[in-house]
Design brief:
alpha/beta; 5-stranded mixed sheet; 5 helices; 9 strands
Protein backbone atom coordinates (compact mmCIF):
# COMPACT_ATOMS: atom_id res chain seq x y z
CA UNK A 1 0.00 0.00 0.00
CA UNK A 2 2.72 2.44 0.95
CA UNK A 3 4.73 1.68 -2.19
CA UNK A 4 1.92 2.81 -4.45
CA UNK A 5 1.62 6.16 -2.69
CA UNK A 6 5.40 6.75 -2.73
CA UNK A 7 5.41 6.09 -6.47
CA UNK A 8 2.76 8.73 -7.09
CA UNK A 9 4.59 11.33 -5.03
CA UNK A 10 7.93 10.58 -6.69
CA UNK A 11 6.28 11.49 -9.99
CA UNK A 12 5.12 14.78 -8.54
CA UNK A 13 8.42 15.87 -7.09
CA UNK A 14 10.27 15.16 -10.32
CA UNK A 15 8.03 17.52 -12.28
CA UNK A 16 7.80 21.33 -12.57
CA UNK A 17 4.52 21.27 -10.65
CA UNK A 18 6.52 20.52 -7.48
CA UNK A 19 7.19 24.26 -7.11
CA UNK A 20 3.51 24.74 -6.42
CA UNK A 21 3.81 22.31 -3.51
CA UNK A 22 5.82 24.97 -1.67
CA UNK A 23 2.80 27.25 -1.66
CA UNK A 24 0.01 27.10 0.89
CA UNK A 25 -2.92 29.03 -0.50
CA UNK A 26 -6.53 28.62 -1.39
CA UNK A 27 -7.40 29.06 -5.07
CA UNK A 28 -9.18 32.30 -5.83
CA UNK A 29 -11.65 32.87 -8.65
CA UNK A 30 -9.59 35.97 -9.43
CA UNK A 31 -6.91 34.71 -11.87
CA UNK A 32 -4.69 37.69 -11.09
CA UNK A 33 -4.19 36.46 -7.52
CA UNK A 34 -3.41 32.94 -8.71
CA UNK A 35 -0.84 34.27 -11.22
CA UNK A 36 0.78 36.32 -8.45
CA UNK A 37 1.01 33.18 -6.32
CA UNK A 38 2.61 31.22 -9.16
CA UNK A 39 5.07 34.05 -9.73
CA UNK A 40 6.12 33.98 -6.10
CA UNK A 41 6.60 30.22 -6.32
CA UNK A 42 9.20 30.63 -9.06
CA UNK A 43 11.51 32.52 -6.72
CA UNK A 44 11.17 30.28 -3.69
CA UNK A 45 14.09 28.30 -2.40
CA UNK A 46 13.68 24.78 -1.02
CA UNK A 47 12.03 24.85 2.40
CA UNK A 48 10.49 28.30 2.02
CA UNK A 49 6.75 28.79 2.16
CA UNK A 50 4.35 31.59 1.35
CA UNK A 51 0.82 31.75 2.70
CA UNK A 52 -1.85 33.37 0.55
CA UNK A 53 -5.34 33.11 1.98
CA UNK A 54 -8.27 33.68 -0.39
CA UNK A 55 -11.74 32.31 -0.81
CA UNK A 56 -12.35 29.84 -3.61
CA UNK A 57 -15.15 31.01 -5.88
CA UNK A 58 -18.81 31.27 -5.07
CA UNK A 59 -20.31 28.71 -2.72
CA UNK A 60 -23.89 29.40 -3.70
CA UNK A 61 -25.94 27.12 -5.90
CA UNK A 62 -26.18 23.34 -6.15
CA UNK A 63 -23.63 20.74 -5.08
CA UNK A 64 -23.12 19.12 -8.50
CA UNK A 65 -20.44 21.35 -9.95
CA UNK A 66 -17.68 19.96 -12.15
CA UNK A 67 -14.39 21.01 -10.58
CA UNK A 68 -12.13 19.27 -13.10
CA UNK A 69 -12.17 16.28 -15.46
CA UNK A 70 -9.74 13.40 -15.89
CA UNK A 71 -9.86 12.10 -19.46
CA UNK A 72 -13.42 13.46 -19.78
CA UNK A 73 -14.51 11.89 -16.46
CA UNK A 74 -15.91 14.76 -14.37
CA UNK A 75 -15.11 15.25 -10.70
CA UNK A 76 -17.83 17.02 -8.72
CA UNK A 77 -16.53 18.91 -5.71
CA UNK A 78 -17.38 21.78 -3.38
CA UNK A 79 -15.36 23.16 -0.51
CA UNK A 80 -16.95 23.49 2.92
CA UNK A 81 -14.79 25.57 5.25
CA UNK A 82 -17.43 25.22 7.97
CA UNK A 83 -16.16 21.67 8.37
CA UNK A 84 -12.76 22.93 9.49
CA UNK A 85 -9.41 23.60 7.89
CA UNK A 86 -9.53 20.28 6.02
CA UNK A 87 -12.76 21.25 4.32
CA UNK A 88 -11.06 23.50 1.81
CA UNK A 89 -8.78 22.74 -1.10
CA UNK A 90 -5.19 23.78 -0.50
CA UNK A 91 -2.55 24.29 -3.16
CA UNK A 92 -0.92 20.91 -2.50
CA UNK A 93 -4.19 19.11 -3.23
CA UNK A 94 -4.80 21.23 -6.32
CA UNK A 95 -1.29 20.51 -7.62
CA UNK A 96 -1.72 16.74 -7.27
CA UNK A 97 -5.20 16.86 -8.83
CA UNK A 98 -3.86 18.85 -11.78
CA UNK A 99 -1.04 16.36 -12.21
CA UNK A 100 -3.62 13.54 -12.33
CA UNK A 101 -5.66 15.57 -14.83
CA UNK A 102 -2.78 16.15 -17.24
CA UNK A 103 -0.66 13.02 -16.68
CA UNK A 104 -3.20 10.31 -15.88
CA UNK A 105 -1.64 7.87 -18.36
CA UNK A 106 1.81 8.24 -16.78
CA UNK A 107 0.44 7.73 -13.27
CA UNK A 108 -1.56 4.69 -14.38
CA UNK A 109 1.41 3.16 -16.20
CA UNK A 110 3.67 3.52 -13.17
CA UNK A 111 1.13 2.10 -10.74
CA UNK A 112 0.42 -0.79 -13.09
CA UNK A 113 4.14 -1.57 -13.06
CA UNK A 114 3.85 -1.79 -9.28
CA UNK A 115 0.85 -4.09 -9.66
CA UNK A 116 2.88 -6.29 -12.01
CA UNK A 117 5.67 -6.52 -9.44
CA UNK A 118 3.10 -7.63 -6.88
CA UNK A 119 1.75 -10.27 -9.26
CA UNK A 120 5.24 -11.65 -9.71
CA UNK A 121 5.38 -12.07 -5.92
CA UNK A 122 2.09 -13.93 -5.99
CA UNK A 123 -0.01 -10.98 -4.83
CA UNK A 124 -2.93 -10.62 -7.23
CA UNK A 125 -5.03 -8.11 -5.32
CA UNK A 126 -4.24 -5.05 -7.45
CA UNK A 127 -3.32 -1.65 -6.03
CA UNK A 128 -4.62 -0.26 -2.75
CA UNK A 129 -4.31 3.33 -1.52
CA UNK A 130 -4.96 5.15 1.73
CA UNK A 131 -5.41 8.91 2.07
CA UNK A 132 -4.45 10.14 5.53
CA UNK A 133 -5.92 13.49 6.55
CA UNK A 134 -8.11 13.70 3.46
CA UNK A 135 -10.26 16.51 4.84
CA UNK A 136 -12.69 16.59 1.92
CA UNK A 137 -12.22 13.37 -0.12
CA UNK A 138 -11.37 15.26 -3.30
CA UNK A 139 -8.02 13.62 -4.13
CA UNK A 140 -9.39 10.13 -3.54
CA UNK A 141 -12.18 10.92 -5.99
CA UNK A 142 -9.56 12.05 -8.53
CA UNK A 143 -7.55 8.84 -8.12
CA UNK A 144 -10.72 6.78 -8.55
CA UNK A 145 -11.58 8.71 -11.72
CA UNK A 146 -8.10 8.06 -13.03
CA UNK A 147 -8.62 4.33 -12.46
CA UNK A 148 -12.00 4.45 -14.23
CA UNK A 149 -10.54 5.92 -17.40
CA UNK A 150 -7.38 3.81 -17.58
CA UNK A 151 -6.48 0.17 -17.08
CA UNK A 152 -5.33 0.78 -13.49
CA UNK A 153 -6.20 -2.08 -11.13
CA UNK A 154 -7.19 0.11 -8.19
CA UNK A 155 -9.05 -2.28 -5.93
CA UNK A 156 -9.29 -0.50 -2.58
CA UNK A 157 -9.17 3.15 -1.52
CA UNK A 158 -9.43 4.12 2.16
CA UNK A 159 -10.28 7.78 2.83
CA UNK A 160 -9.55 8.91 6.38
CA UNK A 161 -9.52 11.93 8.65
CA UNK A 162 -10.76 12.94 12.06
CA UNK A 163 -14.41 12.47 12.92
CA UNK A 164 -15.48 16.05 12.19
CA UNK A 165 -14.52 15.63 8.51
CA UNK A 166 -16.37 12.37 7.86
CA UNK A 167 -19.56 14.03 6.62
CA UNK A 168 -17.77 16.09 3.95
CA UNK A 169 -15.59 13.16 2.82
CA UNK A 170 -18.68 10.98 2.46
CA UNK A 171 -20.51 13.76 0.61
CA UNK A 172 -17.69 14.21 -1.90
CA UNK A 173 -17.37 10.50 -2.63
CA UNK A 174 -21.13 9.95 -2.87
CA UNK A 175 -21.43 12.94 -5.24
CA UNK A 176 -19.17 10.98 -7.64
CA UNK A 177 -20.79 7.51 -7.84
CA UNK A 178 -19.58 7.16 -11.44
CA UNK A 179 -15.99 6.52 -10.24
CA UNK A 180 -16.50 3.70 -7.74
CA UNK A 181 -18.34 0.40 -7.45
CA UNK A 182 -18.89 0.10 -3.70
CA UNK A 183 -18.68 2.59 -0.84
CA UNK A 184 -18.51 1.67 2.85
CA UNK A 185 -18.92 4.52 5.34
CA UNK A 186 -17.94 3.73 8.91
CA UNK A 187 -18.85 6.08 11.74
CA UNK A 188 -20.14 5.94 15.30
CA UNK A 189 -19.50 2.22 15.50
CA UNK A 190 -21.67 1.26 12.52
CA UNK A 191 -21.22 1.10 8.76
CA UNK A 192 -23.37 1.76 5.69
CA UNK A 193 -22.81 0.36 2.21
CA UNK A 194 -23.65 2.07 -1.08
CA UNK A 195 -23.33 0.95 -4.68
CA UNK A 196 -21.96 3.20 -7.40
CA UNK A 197 -22.66 3.38 -11.11
CA UNK A 198 -19.33 3.55 -12.96
CA UNK A 199 -19.91 4.31 -16.63
CA UNK A 200 -16.38 4.26 -18.12
CA UNK A 201 -15.18 1.00 -16.63
CA UNK A 202 -12.55 -0.93 -18.55
CA UNK A 203 -11.45 -4.45 -17.74
CA UNK A 204 -10.25 -4.13 -14.16
CA UNK A 205 -11.21 -5.20 -10.61
CA UNK A 206 -14.10 -3.36 -8.99
CA UNK A 207 -13.07 -0.34 -6.89
CA UNK A 208 -14.14 -0.42 -3.26
CA UNK A 209 -13.98 2.77 -1.19
CA UNK A 210 -14.02 3.05 2.59
CA UNK A 211 -14.59 6.35 4.39
CA UNK A 212 -13.60 6.11 8.03
CA UNK A 213 -12.28 8.04 10.99
CA UNK A 214 -8.59 7.67 11.79
CA UNK A 215 -7.46 8.46 15.31
CA UNK A 216 -3.86 9.59 15.21
CA UNK A 217 -1.63 7.70 17.61
CA UNK A 218 -3.68 4.49 17.47
CA UNK A 219 -1.52 1.78 15.91
CA UNK A 220 -4.27 -0.64 14.93
CA UNK A 221 -6.67 0.87 12.36
CA UNK A 222 -9.35 -1.53 13.66
CA UNK A 223 -9.16 0.18 17.08
CA UNK A 224 -10.21 3.58 15.71
Amino acid sequence: MHSSMFLVFSLLFSSPVSKLLLLQFRVHKNKTLLERAKSKAQGLQSGQEVFIMAEMGDNSGGDKQVFLSIDETPIYFREDWNTGIGGGLWSTGLAIAKYFEHHYSDVSDNLNRLAEMKRKRGENDGISAIELGSGNGFLSACLLALAQTTSLSLKNVVVTDMEDHLILMEKTIRTNPHVWDELIVTKEGSSSTYHGSPSNRKERPASSVTVAEYKWGVDDFNQK
